Every structure is written in C-alpha cells, then in structure tokens.
Amino acid sequence: MITLKEALKLSKEELNKFKEDLQAKIAANPELNAYIDVNNVGEGIPIAIKDNIQVKDWSVTSGSNILQGYIAPYNATVIEKMLNAGLSPFGRTNMDEFAMGSTTESSFYGKTLNPINAECVPGGSSGGSAAAVGAGLAIAALGSDTGGSIRQPAAFCGIVGMKPTYGRVSRYGLGAYASSLDQIGPMTQNVEDAAILYDIISGHDEKDSTSADMNDKVSDKLNPERKLRIAVLPKYIENASEDIKDAYAKAIEALKACGHEIVEHELMDAKFDISAYYITATAEATTNLARYDGIRYGNRVEGKNLEDTFIQTRSNGFGDEVKRRILLGNFVLSSGYYEAYYVKAQKTRHIIKDEYEKIFEDVDLILSPVAPTVANKFGELSNPMEMYLSDIYTISVNLAGLPALALPISKNADGMPVGLQLIAKAYNEQTLFDGAMSLEKEIAYKA
Ligand code: GLN
C-alpha cells in the first residue's frame, strides 16, 4: 500500500485509478469487516473514518443500533480540515458501540477480524480503522482515543496510532463518549504519515471550547537524529506478558543505539488508573448518551406515551456494554455516592497528572507498554472486568491529557505484532514524533 506521503504526490488520474483499485480490493475482502460502508466521495486522497465522526450526508452511527437511520447534517472539523488539504473521507470503519470496548466485538455491525490472524480481535474501539490500515485496505485512517482506542488496536494490528494532547484536535463533530478524555487522532502505516495527518487535522477551533489556541506543525521539522532523555518503567511493566517484556527490552536497546539516554522511573500501581478512568468515563458517558431518546436522532420505538417511547427506544437501541456503563455512570453520579466515587476519581486523576509532570521534569519521553498482552482471541475477554483491566497501560495518558504514539516493535512466536508507546509532555508532539521516528528507523519492523 502506498503511504500518505506518496499519495500526496499522485496526479488526479493516478489517484482516481488508485481509488477504483482500492474499492475492488475492499469488496474482495468482506470477511475482515473493517469497513461498514465505502462511500467514495470527493476528489481527494481516500482516508478511512471511524463511524463516530460526522461526515456530511453519511450515515454515522457510532456502531450502534440506536443511530440507524441518522444522516449527518454537517462535517466534523477534522473532516473540513482534511477536505481543505486534499484528503477525502472514503469509508466508515467499524468500532465498538459508542467507542466502549477494547475488541470491536460490541458493534451493531458484527465483529471485525484481526488482519494478521482471523482468530484474534483487532483491538478496540477503533478496530475497523486499525484493521483497514493493517490489511492494506486504507492508506490511513482516523480513530478516536478516550482510553486507548487508537493506540491499542494499532498495537494489535501492527500499525502506528497516535493520540494527540487533549485540546490539540477539535472534538467538534465527534460522537462524544467521555468529553474530558476524547481525542481524534491518526492511524497510519508509519510515523511520518502520522505526523502529516496530525498536522492536517490539528489546530485551534472556536467550535470546540476545549480546543487549545495553538497551531504549530510538526511534519516539516521531523528530526529523528535528536538525542533525548527517555524514561523506562521497570516495575510498572512487571504485570505485562513475556511478549511485551521482550519487546520492551528490545526497544530499550534500540533507543540506546539511537544515542538516547535511558533513565529509570516509576508510576504508581495502574489499578488506581482503572478506577479513576471507569468512574470518570462512565459518568461523562451517561450524560452524553442522554441525548439518544428516540426524539432527536435515529431509531425510535413508539411507546404508549413519551416516557415509554424513551424507555423502549433506549432499551432496544443500546447494546449490553453501553447499558452497563450508563448504569455505572448514573450510580457514581447519584447523590450519596457522588463524593465517594466521582469526586474521589477526580482527585486520583490529579495525582496521576502530577506524577507524570514530575517525571517530565527529568525526561523528554516515557516508554510504556500499550496493552498487557498481544491481541487476544475472540471471546477471551467476555468478562467486562477483565476487559477493563486490559486497559491498564493506556488510560492514564488520557486522564493526564498527554500525547502518546503506539508503534510496532516486534512479533511474538505466533507472528502477532507487539506495539509499545512513547508518551510526551502536553503539547510536545514534536518531541514525540522525533523520538518515535528514531525508534522506528532503528527497529525496522516489517509487517
Ligand atoms: N477500552 C476503553 C473503554 O472501553 C477505551 C475506549 C476508548 O478509548 N474509546 O472505555
């Protein structure tokens, strides 16, 4: 598959031919189920779009039954920015319903397969985007990351996935899961393409009140020769599988070979991250999902009266995992429990942020696992608590609002990709991409 950098140099004729071939290739691989639809609109370079980003006149459903029949009346800011840069939304990709999940098994459209091994999950929630890029069915894709949903599927499918600093990329037109954690980001074949796509979609947007008033770009200044100070976390990685530990050791050697300085640091037990994240995320999700009542958007199941219509619509429209989180979110926000759970989670969130800030007084980047294991088999994480625990290495980055990039490092004995992530200081995307590019060059991972 050509890279985004190469695609930017194609003539109009070459691009049209490429898009026809790509459509045929996608049609020939339906069992992967990476795309929900392919809508070849616009003249630009085709980019796959997660099904929770508004593209005008598309059916956009967040992988849910409740949004069947809804047609987006406007473009998300990231889509407007892409169109202005000569890129066009090409198809919408499969995802866990409302981005809640780590396997893409909870989609209304059925599961997506891992392109490297069809018995394994592609990761989630942006599993369709990761599988499309990993299978050579997309040049690049957009995903969204609330607690790892770009980085973890990228790691499971052997591609690059980047979560920007909170506020770098406009959330206008992104179907909200947890508004204080959500960011849209690039999922690509390599680090440079991620920088190019990040540059295109990032920048201040007055339509998003949490958007940072910053417009600096990274891709024309990429410098993999820069020498950096990078923290490794020996204790923090102890609970990861041997596959992950092996890749971690390999990455440390590669970083040293690049001339980076490696220093040891520690983060507190990730079990606190899980509690803080699942309380914060479900509380915000409960509020955000209240709008799906059968009156304003999508599917409606008529009831005996208005209240019954709400109940029937929501009971019928939401899947089990979404319902579980609505219940959990309402519980932690209810009077009597609010102080004990929600307020405590916010305090924990501050402690996590402070911890990172302290490490970043000493280093430029942190090297961390993305997930405790490689891609698991279908059905393996059927217990919700086990699935939540599999997010231990990604969610603290969202709680702290930091930028992070997952890239493939090695393959385990079964040929499954192992990805790791680099984490940077807030708004320090340049350092993140520079360091990631140096590691990518040294590792020379082959799909
Ligand atoms: N797996 C996490 C969750 O289910 C993260 C999802 C995401 O980043 N959207 O909440």
Question: What does it look like?
Answer:
The chain has one domain (4-267, 353-446): Amidase signature (AS) domain (Amidase signature (AS) enzymes), CATH 3.90.1300. The protein contains 14 helices and eleven strands. Strands 1-3-2-4-6-5-10-11-9-7-8 form an eleven-stranded mixed sheet, sandwiched between helices. The chain is of the alpha/beta class. The structure holds glutamine (GLN).
Count the E strands.
Answer: 11
Within the largest sheet, what's the order of strands? 1-3-2-4-6-5-10-11-9-7-8
Task: Catalogue the unreliable spans.
Answer: none
Query: Into which percentage range does the β-strand content fall?
Result: 5-15%
What percent of residues adopt helix (DSSP H or I)? 25-40%
Order of helices and strands: HHEEHEHEHEEHEHEHHHHEHHEEH
Q: So, the CATH homologous superfamily?
A: Amidase signature (AS) domain
Q: Can you count the helices?
A: 14
Predict the CATH topology.
Answer: Amidase signature (AS) enzymes
Distance from N terminus to C terminus (CA atoms, Å) equals 12 Å
What is the overall pLDDT average? 96
Largest sheet: 11 strands, mixed
The level 1 CATH classification is Alpha Beta
The assigned structural class equals: alpha/beta
Can you give me a brief rundown of this structure?
With 447 residues, the protein is of the alpha/beta class. It is built from 14 helices and eleven strands.
